[in-house]
Specification:
single chain, alpha/beta, 5-stranded mixed beta sheet, about 25% strand, globular, binds prephenic acid
């Protein structure tokens, strides 16, 4: 076949592919309406796994690799998710990193509601005002967000998903301001911490606030010309502000991990994690005994974190993430023995592992 003929063939195929993709997306939209009517969670990782496996099995017969079809289907499913409207609450103002995480995870069609505090995010989901809450859990440079952990302990909400987001901080000021004229910098303490080197070099006075994008909004509303905020490029665009410096993080590999919280956790997807919180008896080897069960059963621990119980001084709760779903046989059989070694034990949820270290 000549080049022209081959290209004509591609054009014909594309016509069919596009028509079929459009039809597939519109079916996903109808499924979204059905789910909303029945209060079913929009994202179904188990079904997504089956869809992908099905596509892989057909593709290999047609001479396509599993990697090739997986790349295409990840995009198709992501777009299908975006056709299904989800309501999600986040802490901060429009332009916050949590909002970006929510839109990335649930799709740009989802309705993201800004909340003043993390407590409000929990309340909105608990009261049924929104389907999900997107909360930051830990940052790869500054560590855990302790308030999120403390709130999860008290709440009945469950972890239904996780997403890692690359954090690219900018220094943002009012239009007309210059870097030389900046005296004070406003932002969330985590963001000030992640850009400490840059900020100290320029001898700015640091003003901690409750969120990054809210600081940009404050500068705008008050017309502050000698102040700047550490926030995302998106926050600068939303409020029509000027970027004075880009990529000001101490460590360019700056990621934040977020949890999507809902009324229940996610069904098994085949590649999951489980988060639990527990306390052990005050006796030698108590934590070791607990961890030994995981080691013996070859359950891979991905994170451990301790927080004061705040009931008694120097007593701690442990937060643990491990690979596997609580319904997977290996985990299901380990749970009673794990629980036996604790004073209290709570499953925060099982959810599909984030697809990447950060987007
Ligand atoms: O089957 C569904 O429940 C759908 O919503 C469709 C679909 C898909 O595109 O295949 C999209 C999102 C869900 O997470 C699972 C699958």
């Amino acid at each position: 076949m000549s080049l022209d003929e081959l290209r004509r063939r591609i054009d014909q195929l594309d016509e069919n592919i596009v028509k079929m993709l459009a039809e597939r997306l519109s079916i996903a939209e109808s499924i979204g309406h059905e789910k909303a009517a029945g209060s079913t969670p929009p994202i179904d990782p188990g079904r997504e796994r089956k869809v992908l496996d099905h596509a892989i099995s057909i593709a290999s017969a047609g001479g396509m690799t599993s990697d090739e079809i997986t790349e295409i289907y990840r995009s198709v499913i992501k777009l299908a998710r975006q056709r299904q409207e989800v309501s999600v609450a986040f802490q901060g103002e429009a332009g916050a990193y949590s909002e970006a995480a929510a839109l990335d995870y649930f799709g740009s069609r989802s309705v993201a509601t800004a909340c003043e505090s993390l407590e409000d995010v929990f309340k909105k989901v608990e009261n049924g005002n929104v389907q999900f809450g997107m909360i930051p859990i830990e940052n790869s440079v500054e560590g855990s967000i302790s308030r999120s952990y403390d709130l999860m302990l008290e709440s009945d909400l469950m972890v239904a998903g996780e997403i890692n987001l690359r954090v690219n901080h900018c220094l943002i000021g009012n239009p007309g301001s210059t870097l030389d004229g900046i005296k004070r910098v406003y932002s969330h303490p985590q963001a000030l911490g992640q850009t400490g080197h840059f900020l100290r070099q320029l001898h700015f006075e640091l003003i901690p606030t409750s969120d990054t994008a809210g600081s940009v909004k404050l500068l705008k509303e008050k017309g502050i010309m000698n102040g700047a905020a550490v926030a995302s490029e998106r926050a600068a665009a939303i409020y029509g502000m000027k970027i004075l410096a880009r990529d000001i993080m101490d460590n360019p590999n700056n990621f934040t991990r977020f949890f999507a919280l809902g009324g229940h956790d996610a069904p098994p997807s085949g590649d999951d994690k489980t988060s639990v919180v527990f306390a052990v008896k005050h006796k030698p080897g108590a934590l070791y005994d607990f961890l030994r069960i995981l080691a013996e059963r070859k359950i891979n621990l991905t994170k451990i974190e301790s927080r004061p119980t705040r009931k008694k001084a120097w007593e701690y709760n442990f937060y643990l993430d491990f690979e596997g779903h609580r319904q997977d046989e290996k985990i299901l059989f380990a749970l009673p023995s794990l629980e036996e070694h604790t004073l209290f034990f709570k499953i925060l949820g099982s959810y599909p592992k984030a697809k990447s270290e950060g987007n």
